[in-house]
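Notes on consecutive records. When two proteins share a document, each keeps its own sequence and its own token line. Never mix them. Below: protein one.
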Amino acid sequence: MAAEIRIPKIGISATAMVLSEWMFADGETVAQGDVIYTVETDKTAVEIEAQSAGVLRVTGVEGENYSVGTLIGMIEDAA
């Protein structure tokens, strides 16, 4: 089963943030705990870890601003 990757809620007031960088390319295999992307608010930058292992499917675009909860990718089960 695929795991969704969404823009996280960081802090109390952040409602949107910039997807600053993917650490892996679309189609690469990631392990649970790998840092897979970073996001930035007006106050901080945060590294986000994979919550499961599998093949990364990227839909979010680096440099774009996304609302909290927006789907930006998936981690598919490695077959």
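Protein two starts on the next line and is unrelated to protein one.
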Amino acid sequence: MTSWNIRALEERDKEQWAALFEQYCTFYHRELTPEHLECVWSWFMDGRLSGLVAERSDAPGALRGMAHLRPVVRPTLGVVAGYLDDLFIDPEARGSGVVDALFESIRTYARTQEWDHVRWITAEDNYRARAVYDRLATRTPFLTYNMVIEP
């Protein structure tokens, strides 16, 4: 199994992160404009969003995975939790142990932030990811809704 280095996203990672994020958006059929990309990148730079990236230990600088995290308050539980907005593994790196390394780093990061738990969603038909998630976490019984806010 490949050895992975998981670290915080840095300014120097922008180009490689953008390539991974574009693949992620394509997977979920989301258009990624240059403005959208710059907006999300600015959230990392101003601290609203945190990013973890994965690189092979024997090939530092070549990003093969990413995770985007942020705090979320949970009033009914009286805790602050983490929210995993996005997780993507380069298709060529899948099955190499990178997802387990990323989730272990997510767990460590959550501890440093004093988050009670980390929550995320995925598409119902994302079977490969769901197999991993079912192994690492407990599926909740809640459905997700979006209320669009128009001007």
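For the record: The chain has a mean pLDDT of 95.
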